[in-house]
Design goal:
- The complex is a heterodimer of chains A (620) and B (239).
- Chain A has 620 residues and is of the alpha+beta class.
- Chain A contains 25 helices and 21 strands.
- Chain A folds into four domains: 119 residues, Jelly Rolls (Sandwich), CATH 2.60.120; 126 residues, CBS-domain; 196 residues, 2-Layer Sandwich (Beta Polymerase, domain 2); 135 residues, Four Helix Bundle (Hemerythrin (Met), subunit A).
- Chain A is flat.
- Chain B is an alpha/beta fold and 239 residues long.
- Chain B has nine helices and six strands, in the order ααβββααβαβαβααα.
- In chain B, a hairpin with a 2-residue loop joins β2 and β3.
- The longest helix of chain B is centred in the C-terminal third of the chain and has 19 residues.
- Chain B is globular, with a radius of gyration of 17 Å.
- Classes of the chains: A alpha+beta (620), B alpha/beta (239).
- The interface between A and B is medium-sized, with 28 and 30 residues.
- β1 of chain A pairs antiparallel with β3 of chain B.
Chain lengths: 620, 239
């Protein structure tokens, strides 16, 4: 006989690791559990319990390291695995901090599940590295910008379908369409799609034909409908549009369920934001306004690349290619407006654009490197106007001016090669905390337009100097350790530390930036020319500056943060919200939370290693 | 209901007496006879060692004489540990129509109930599960009254068993702290909320039994420190 423990089964099915189990295994699970209630302050695990896997049903646990520092906080659906092995020195203390109800799976039953279900087992694998690798492969892979026409119809849909019944009066149907700002209305009867009414039908079959607006929509609707499956490609959809000379395609799943409606403008917008088109538009832009129009489509490009499941690196590459093209075209427009430059120059991008890992939401960071023939009195004015023209153009294209003023419009960041060399020498030989912070940005310089060899002249001097100077490296390391990674999540909050619980996860501050800082530290201390964070890590491992595992783990963590940020921004694009880096933990699945926790730990582990390896003194 | 300090009450003697009385009226070989012949749970054990059967009935109404059992759910607790492997739920065929006012509560229809076990058979299973255990229920008067009535119908005698009523335990808790409490605050859901136990959605005999079991654990922990001793005897109710 079946005991109806579905309340428990349904809860367990929500727990990320258990969500991996097939339905039959989930059904059988409740009977293998015991239930324990522990009041606040009781010892955990309770001394009389067999070891096992504890599932928090309600309440909270705080796990602390031996020195009392909070390691993590566990709440509903979180797991605590009690090991029977004494090998791991496990002096963590656990406290029940709220009245809590637990389900416990005894160790033998847990091990049976691990044996039988690999997908369940890998969630408990020892190395975070393996879990992260797996996480990335799950995030939807394989998408390349070239495969845009292969994007599924479903990924192009922008909103829920707007529907009415065929018996709705025409006037009311028109009102619904006006209200929802759509040009087509889908008509459903008993959940089945029976017809479609478009703006054109209202004109031709209603107004022009003299049909009363009180008549039902049935009288003017198109009945024989051509539909498309949500899994069909954008290419297939474009064939249907042209073959039948129509502008709207209802999207209907195999089981007859209505999924949405695809219009030719959805497809046009989709094709139009292909990065190659944007690059072409940027390079052919006749004026700053045209550049600004290209810039305004960057968020759409990002959203679409996310929709086709683009990986982190191609995604950043696509964004950078467009930004570089806009920058290059702006320098050309500037020379058209101001006359040709009096001496050779190189326009350098810094920060994320410099590293080729930009997203649609970014500040502009740039600098000008001038030929040593530079005479302030003679050329200063031209280059000042040049810098202003380009940075204003970039601002018009949506790249906000850098709040810290790291832009070519600042005289300090518009210098001849010799001036830059002196500047870097200062930074390297007299490293002050704030100057090191400033310097980090400049180690990511990349020439976007103008004479590239000017920057090479600079690197020839700067890279060896930085590689030899361990004091500078120690400062740089200190800077890379400035941000301590969060511990994880607790309910709707990001647990930054004991005192600080944030409502949003800043993916830049607590993810991308610390990893970029670590990668730069390795590249600079080894004198490597790489700029991209992942390339820097790989090169550092090859050069023996860090272990392969550490490099691969950090690279995967970086990719995870990058893709999650892009997905977050794509969501904001779809909703018409301003872009930012701050993710609401509620939008993360349990699985993603676990992956992020792993990623935090990977970074934290490497920060600890850097602390000893670069002999950074002081405590954080 | 008697409000007594129960620690001095000679439960063992009283129970033995009642059981001998009932046993004389029951035919040998019946499930009730077997139950009454088996030893009673150890009342001097610490609650952490206690053997509990947490039970809940759904019935056709509130009168044990007229109304019938519709379903039963139970789960075994060893001290504070609720063992879901022991969770059971049975529908019972009441052989009478189900009044509408009770059907809206338990959502058991006549058709579903007709598929259920005969009452006598279900009762046999309950008695077997109760053997050597202490019965725990919320407002246990109700469960005991229906259990006794059903045993009388089928086996000709009542049963005598040590009982813990979580409603009484909770009331004692309020009184110990000199807290005012309205009748609403002694409801299962309200008490669970007080101990931060999650809300269950179903009104279902097994889920209610489980909900009562969790509350029982909370009430016991409320009564005694982690290291302290609390004999089962001190938790018993006289009904």
């Amino acid at each position: 006989m079946a005991a109806e423990l579905w309340e428990i089964r349904d809860f367990i099915a929500e727990v990320p690791a258990f969500a991996e189990l097939p339905a039959a295994a989930l059904d059988a699970l409740p009977r293998r559990l015991t239930v324990r209630y522990l009041r606040r302050g009781r010892p955990f695990p309770p001394p009389d319990a067999e070891p096992g896997l504890w599932i928090v049903r309600s309440g909270a646990l705080a796990v602390r390291e031996p020195d009392g520092r909070l390691r993590e906080k566990l709440g509903e659906t979180d797991l605590y695995l009690e090991s029977d092995e004494a090998d791991e020195q496990k002096p963590d203390t656990v406290a029940v901090v709220e009245d809590s109800l637990f389900y416990q799976l005894p160790l033998p039953a847990f091990e049976e599940l691990v044996e039988a279900h690999p997908a369940f087992a890998w969630r408990f694998e020892r190395t975070r590295r393996q879990r992260l690798e797996r996480a990335l492969s799950e995030l939807g892979q394989g998408g390349r910008p070239e495969s845009l026409m292969a994007a599924s119809v479903e990924s192009l849909l922008r909103r829920e379908p707007i529907t009415a019944t065929p018996d709705t009066p025409i006037r009311q149907g028109a009102e619904i369409m006006t209200e929802a700002q759509v040009s087509a209305l889908l008509l459903l009867e008993d959940g089945q799609l029976v017809g479609l009414v478009t703006d054109r039908d209202l004109r031709r079959r209603c107004i022009a034909a003299g049909v009363s607006v009180e008549a039902p929509l049935r009288e003017i609707m198109t009945e024989t409908l051509i539909t498309v499956a949500p899994t069909a490609s954008a290419f297939e959809a474009s064939l249907l549009f042209s073959r039948h000379n129509i502008h709207h395609l209802p999207v209907v799943a195999d089981d007859g369920a209505l999924v949405g409606i695809l219009s030719t403008s959805d497809l046009l917008r989709h094709q139009g934001t292909h990065s190659i088109h944007l690059v072409r538009d940027a390079m052919a832009a006749p004026d700053v306004e045209a550049i600004a129009r290209v810039g305004s489509r960057l968020p759409d490009l990002e959203a679409q690349l996310v929709a086709i499941g683009a990986e982190a690196e191609p995604l950043g590459e696509a964004m950078v290619t467009v930004t570089d093209a806009m920058t290059r075209r702006l320098t050309e427009l500037a020379e058209q407006a101001l006359g040709l430059a009096p001496i050779a120059w190189a326009w350098a991008a810094l920060g994320s654009q410099g590293r080729r890992e930009q997203t649609a939401f970014t500040d502009q960071d740039n600098a000008l490197i001038l030929d040593d023939a530079f005479e302030p009195g003679q050329h200063g004015d031209w280059f000042e106007r040049f810098a202003r023209f380009v940075t204003d153009g970039l601002a018009a294209a949506g790249l906000e001016p850098c709040p810290g003023g790291t832009m070519a419009t600042t005289p300090d960041w518009r210098q001849p090669v010799a001036g830059w060399q002196a500047q870097f020498r200062d930074w390297i030989e007299q490293p002050e905390p704030h100057s090191v912070m400033l310097a980090t940005n400049f180690f990511d310089m990349r020439v976007v337009a103008g004479r590239e060899s000017l920057l090479d002249l600079l690197w020839d001097k700067v890279r060896p100097a930085a590689r030899e100077n361990t004091i500078f490296q120690r400062r740089l390391a200190n800077n890379a350790l400035a941000i301590r990674m969060p511990l994880g999540f607790f309910r709707r909050l990001v647990v930054v530390n004991d005192e600080q619980h944030d409502e949003r996860l800043d993916l830049k501050r607590y993810g991308l930036m610390p990893i970029a800082d670590l990668a730069r530290l390795h590249a600079v201390s080894l004198g490597l020319p790489e700029l991209h964070t992942v390339r820097r890590l790989e090169a550092a491992a090859r050069a023996g500056g860090m272990s392969d595992q550490a490099a691969a783990g950090l690279a995967d963590a970086w990719r995870l943060f990058y893709v999650l940020r892009a997905r977050h921004q794509a969501r904001q694009v779809r909703r018409g919200e301003p872009l930012d880096n701050r993710l609401d933990p509620e939008q993360l699945s349990g699985l993603e939370r676990d992956h992020l926790r792993d990623a935090f730990r990977v970074v934290d582990d490497h920060q600890r290693w850097v602390r000893t390896h670069f002999d950074v003194s002081g405590t954080r | 209901m008697a409000r007594l300090r129960l620690s001095w009450f000679p439960h063992g003697t009283w129970l033995a007496m009642r059981r001998r009385y009932h046993r004389r009226r029951v035919a040998d070989e019946s499930p009730l006879a077997h139950f009454l012949d088996s030893p009673v749970a150890d009342l001097d054990a610490d609650w952490r060692e206690g053997q509990f059967l947490v039970l809940d009935f759904e019935t056709t109404g509130l009168d044990p004489g007229q109304d019938r059992l519709l379903s039963v759910g139970w789960v075994v607790m060893r001290g504070p540990t609720i063992d879901l492997a022991t969770a059971e739920h049975e529908l019972i065929n009441p052989m009478i129509g189900i009044p509408e006012q009770s059907a809206v509560i338990h959502c058991i229809t006549d058709d579903a109930a007709a598929e259920g076990l005969p009452e006598r058979e279900a009762l046999g299973l309950v008695l077997e599960a109760l053997t050597g255990r202490i019965l725990v229920a919320h407002n246990a008067r109700f469960e005991i009254a229906f259990l006794n009535a059903a045993c009388r119908r089928h086996f000709g005698a009542g049963l005598a068993i040590p009982v813990i009523d979580t409603l009484q335990l909770a009331r004692q808790g309020f009184e110990r702290r000199h807290l005012h409490h309205g009748p609403g605050e002694l409801r299962l859901d309200a008490l669970r909320g007080r101990y931060h136990l999650p809300r269950y959605h179903a009104h279902h005999a097994l889920i209610d039994a489980l909900a009562t079991a969790e509350l029982h654990s909370a009430l016991c922990q409320d009564r005694v420190s982690p290291k302290g001793r609390l004999s089962v005897r001190r938790l018993l109710s006289v009904l």
